[in-house]
Amino acid sequence: MTSPTSPTPALRVAFLGLGVMGYPMAGHLLRAGHTVTVYNRTAAKAQQWVKEYGGACAATPAAAVRDADIVAACVGNDNDLRSIVLGEQGAFAGMKADAVFVDHTTASADVARELYAAAREKGLHFVDAPVSGGEAGARNGVLTIMCGGDAPAFERVAPTLGAYGRAVTRIGEAGAGQLAKMVNQICIAGLVQGLSEAINFGQRAGLDMPLVLDVINKGAAASWQMDNRGQTMIDGKFDFGFAVDWMRKDLGLCLAEAQRNGVSLPVTALVDQFYGEVQALGGSRWDTSSLIHRLRVLCGKA
Questions:
Q1: Domain 3-hydroxyisobutyrate dehydrogenase-like NAD-binding: where (predicted)?
Q2: H or E element: which one contains 3?
Q3: 12-174: which CATH topology?
């Protein structure tokens, strides 16, 4: 793991994908003193970023990455990632020799290994580096970053990733970062379902749930989810970041990987089904804590 507090030399960096995560992450890079060029599929978003932060934007990934020492990306899924990396206008076509591509997309371990191999054939480096911490973590520059790839490439990019990561850790070889993110999402799925059941149970029992959570959060039941989502779940507010649609995409990756390696994920599969029911209730863009809404509907209290 590297400390994000050490000063880093100014580099030429490209950032591809300016969604709710990538937009502030790219901003942190520029504020850290790097020369930043951005690309976004919707050009107006890239122009807006330049107006807000400075730097430059480019019309294609290949143009954005030209002369960059490090290229970072944060897009939606495996196919989105391939679309900005491969092909005549893709990042690999424009990157200079020995440059490092860092992928912050939550994607499959398979695509990480595929693009790692493609990068090595072109004399480039590839690090899969999915993040945890949500939109707030990106805005505040305190993401947890889980990396897979060659150790020398990781050591080159880790200080720069400290611009938006409070913990930047190499887990192992190519694909290991994505597998670690799957572990993260499996943990979160179970935690949020458990917290949903607990709050719904307590409310049905007539307890003062803010008081109850305050008490039990000082003991063995304490968690980030309870700290940050407990009260909003009590209040029925679900507009705090990571959406149900995105969580289902991530859990799909977990379940597919589990099928490949022969691991049983019964709780994860069940919670994925519950998130599907939340989508059917109109909650596709609610945050992941909206699992409790499903329970309230079942109880006739929504």
A1: 175-293
A2: none
A3: Rossmann fold (3.40.50)
